[in-house]
Amino acid sequence: MPTKYLKDFYWRDYVTMTLGLALYAIGLIGFIKPGGIVTGGLTGIALLVEYSTKGVIQLQNVFFVVNCVLLLLAFKVLGFKFIVKTLYSVVVLTLFLTIARHIITEPLIEEEPLLSGVIGGMMCGAGIGLVFSVNGSTGGTDIIVAIINKYKSLTFGRGMMLCDLTIICSSYFVSQDYNKIVAGLIVMAVMTYVIDMVINGFRQSVQFLIFSEKYEIIADAINKELKRGCTVLDGTGWYTKKSTKVIILLAKRSESVDIFRMIRSIDEKAFISQTNTRGVYGEGFDQMK
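Predicted structure:
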């Protein structure tokens, strides 16, 4: 059964999620909340409720109750496995938020709300990115984004942005301050960038398709000088109806300049296509986790 190969990774997923949720709780309570900034997602809505009720209704309580409702609605669409991870995240994050409120009683950065918000955005973004990297979720609007992502080619960062803009802009009705909206948008941008970097940014490699009559010399140079493997495929130029050879090469992004220089020195007439590739695993690249 396929599951016997995957079960060894489950406990690592929950360790990664726990670390991410801890980062998120510290970033939100220690840096974002003291500045009166509203983030996106359900936590943003929970912050709005807490601000508007002067702290009578605390954000972690709103977060937990609304998430329970959303999880019930999403059960049929996202499946049991997703719900289990999300339920774990909701319970653990609610616990971490409660603990953080009792431990962090003073602003960690005073009189610099925007700087504090940016640092909090980086921590929250890194935390969410770690959770998403193991197919987890922090609940709230993440559930809505996950449903969209199931059927549409939409990154988590972009999906969250669509949901978050409305929440952040609506903070004006509570604070009556446009500066809070600007600060919230900056924090959201930082979070979105960090999320995408944690999930995909550091795995980016490049793929080359090289068309050249001197393919043998180029392939040998790739092996000997760049210490990279490559694959030579048979192709046909449909305009000329002539057979041709195509070299496929996967390399790190930092090696691109050397590759172009080497090919140009061998064959200036070579035709090259370069594309970014995220998630290349194997010898010479990232390890499969």
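Summary: DSSP finds ten helices and four strands in the chain.
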